[in-house]
Amino acid sequence: MYESKEMRAVMADWLKEKMAEDEKLVVIDADLARANGTLGLRKEFPDRALDVGIAESNMASVAAGLSSYGFKPFIFTFCPFATRRICDQVTISIVYAKQNVKIVGTDPGIAAAFNGGTHMTLEDIGVMRSIPGMVIYEPADGAQLAKALPQIYNYDKPVYIRLFRKVPAKTYFDRDDYEFNLFQADIMREGKDVTLFASGVEVKEAMDAADILAKEGFSAEVINIHTIKPLDTLTVITSVRKTGCAVSCENHNIIGGLGSAVAQALSQDYPVPLEYIGMKDCFSEVGKTDYLVKKYGMDAESIVNAAKKSMRKKERRS
Question: Residue 250: which domain range?
């Protein structure tokens, strides 16, 4: 049975176990090992748990170099420094050069909370989506992360992991019968009136919204899009063919992220009304995550309202 714990601890525990098995696995930090939970690896693996200091671009370049010699680097820092700060090194040294580097960005979007607007990465998915061949994964809870890491490790191309550091509000994927597939979305709840596409911390809000809608007589299908690129378009299109309308729910700017990926898929194959939950092209303020979720309309009640608006548009079209 899965024991609920911080996501960074899930990551660190897995790395400790895997590094003992694989001498090619290397962890590189940029002065945030304590914050990201990887500090303990230095005692166990002093030659393969490295810190480059506050030099994120150098970290990416070092990882690319190590990969070219057959090592398997995981690099760690906060989301803004793992994406927008090192975009050129990721694009050229890692992805263009076909290097097997896993990039772990922690505390995406408003999860940065008291670190404030400078650390709240609301554009990281958009940045990484635009890089050819980049895979973007965001776990909903630690149980799913634990099942995802072996597949990510065995995928010999770059992957960006968008990681909430702490204990998620709720665990959904601790079932023994849950089979994770890196490239297939999870149908968490079946419905017929509206589809709620969600990722990361917004999965809980979408599930809560579905409960509220059910009490009002509406049937919402909830799909966890854990891998935002490449998008599981088959699951997306199959769902909206049934429901006829949708809402995207993400901890990111509504421009360039999950909502944009879903909209692109729908516009090409099966256009339906789509509403967007996320940051409305603005920067965030300092505050607790729960407060920010409500302030910026990313809570369950806001998803309910968006779902009703999407359903009304569907009715008008029909």
Answer: 186-317
